[in-house]
Specification:
Elements (H helix, E strand, L loop, with lengths): L5 H13 L7 H27 L14 H12 L1 H12 L9 H22 L5 H8 L5 H21 L3 H10 L6 H11 L6 H34 L11 H27 L8 H32 L2 H11 L4 H20 L5 H29 L16 H24 L5 H23 L1
Helix pairs in contact: 1-17, 2-16, 3-5, 3-11, 3-15, 4-5, 4-10, 4-11, 5-7, 5-16, 7-10, 8-9, 10-11, 11-12, 11-15, 12-14, 13-14, 14-15
Length: about 450
């Protein structure tokens, strides 16, 4: 396959990458206003909760964790998208992933912001977060979770920023006409004097390589510690050592399939059809298939181990999940996370991109439901043998509004990012194309000789 001529390729990719950053359309403003309206309603719900307390939620003494916590677990899981696609594939020198790396890193940052938001809302008064640092016991997995989240968020911000430095420098030089003076000042500041010298390139590559190696264990430890907050208790369904690796594989599965959805949206509305092709969707779906069956293995082993022992409270939990009030949620999770996505990803008929995007949507619906299945039914089973009267939980309008606000914030971050950042690392892509053209030219000369 011939490589695109470097000069033409560089011009095309610059124009494509910088075009979305120019004057927004009316539809763009309408979508942003729609998201802001959802966020505004969510803020009203949060103010109501601040005024009247957590009594405005469906949480009570028995079911003390609800919509906020399993939304937090969902967003933490989605955040592993960046570590999977950007960091792991960068280490393996899989160059096909280059157009997707920034999208994956943006998904990671936006997801972690939402995870932090859900924790802040769940504690009730926001000043209680300060108490966690002032009076928290280091033996508590909850303290580890907050420290891990802050570390992961900081590392992800830096990991997003470092590859952007050459792009900021190019925007500083290219956008002098259409960009505002304030934008140019910001780009100049963020470019930190980048001129593309060999010394600068060497230092940047070294910094990215070090952070690439660091971000993977930080991401895995974040999901492990999140699982510890559940598995280090005696609750039925949580009291298992397999929960931590289960969370890590589930996070990779959720992150990879969420990427299919986000890259499809960016491809459509930022006109990236030349650079994000059906091949990229197929390759990410191959990762998704491997992770689907890996996660299925962990889920089966987890439930099979607990069902084999079947202590009294675990028997009640599985009755609740399989044929009880929580059964519709459990079987919906099985259908949307495993059965339907497996059919869509393995049965390769019809348009590739819509089919794989639909699989990504279904998986993340299923994984969101799975977080509910993990958290709430275990809390509904009483710890004392009081005839096993189940304590039911249903979220209030306040919880639903705030969690919906989180999804709107996620969409707003990705929407605004398209107007201030290049969605693809186009300088890196240009350099990779030049290198590939150079190797191809040498190969052609070698053949002639």
């Amino acid at each position: 396959m011939r490589v695109a001529k470097a000069e033409n390729y560089a011009q095309r990719i610059e124009q494509t990458s910088l075009a979305p950053m120019k004057k927004p359309s009316t539809a763009y403003y309408a979508f942003v206003l729609f998201l802001l309206a959802i966020i505004g309603w969510g803020l009203y719900a949060y103010i109501t909760q601040l005024k009247f307390g957590l009594l405005m939620t469906g949480m009570r003494d028995y079911v003390s964790w609800g919509f906020y916590i399993f939304s937090f677990i969902f967003w933490v899981g989605a955040s592993l998208c960046g570590a999977l696609v950007s960091a792991i594939l960068r280490l393996t020198h899989a160059h096909w992933r280059t157009p997707l790396t920034r999208i994956a890193e943006l998904v990671t940052v936006a997801s972690l912001i939402n995870a932090g938001l859900m924790i802040s809302v769940d504690v009730g008064r926001p000043d209680r977060l300060l108490f966690l640092f002032a009076y928290g016991r280091f033996q508590s997995p909850l303290v580890w979770d907050v420290i891990g989240l802050l570390t992961y968020l900081l590392g992800s911000f830096v990991y997003l920023y470092l590859p952007l430095i050459p792009d900021f420098a190019l925007m500083r030089d290219r956008l002098k006409g259409p960009a505002t003076a304030l934008k140019l000042k910001i780009y100049t500041l963020l470019a930190v004097g980048w001129r593309g010298t060999p010394e600068q390139r060497q230092r940047l590559d070294k910094a990215i390589s070090v952070l690439t190696v660091m971000i993977i264990p930080i991401g895995i430890s974040m999901h492990t510690v999140t699982a510890f907050t559940l598995s280090m208790t005696l609750r039925p369904g949580w009291d298992t050592a397999i929960l931590a690796p289960n969370f890590v594989i589930g996070a990779l599965f959720s992150g990879a399939t969420l990427l299919l959805v986000v890259m499809g949206v960016y491809r459509k509305f930022c006109h990236l059809e030349e650079y994000i092709t059906p091949k990229h969707f197929r390759y990410v779906s191959y990762l998704g298939i491997v992770l689907l069956f890996s996660y299925l293995y962990f889920v089966v082993v987890e439930y099979l181990t607990i069902m084999f022992k079947l202590r009294l409270e675990e028997k009640e939990l599985f009755t609740l999940l399989l044929i009880g009030p929580a059964a519709p949620w459990f079987w919906t999770f099985v259908a949307t996370a495993f059965v339907l996505p497996a059919i869509l990803m393995l049965y390769q008929r019809g348009p590739t991109i819509p089919r794989l995007m639909l699989a990504g949507v279904l998986v993340n619906i299923g994984m969101f439901i799975k977080r509910f299945v993990i958290v709430v039914p275990s809390l509904e089973v009483p710890l004392m043998p009081t005839g096993f009267h189940f304590f039911t939980y249903s979220p209030s309008w306040v919880e639903i509004s705030i969690v919906t606000m989180g999804f709107a914030i996620f969409a707003l971050i990705l929407t605004l990012a398209a107007k201030v950042l290049p969605i693809m690392p186009f300088v890196e892509m240009i350099e990779e194309n030049e290198l590939a053209e150079h190797h191809q030219t040498k190969g052609d000369v070698g053949k002639e000789r």
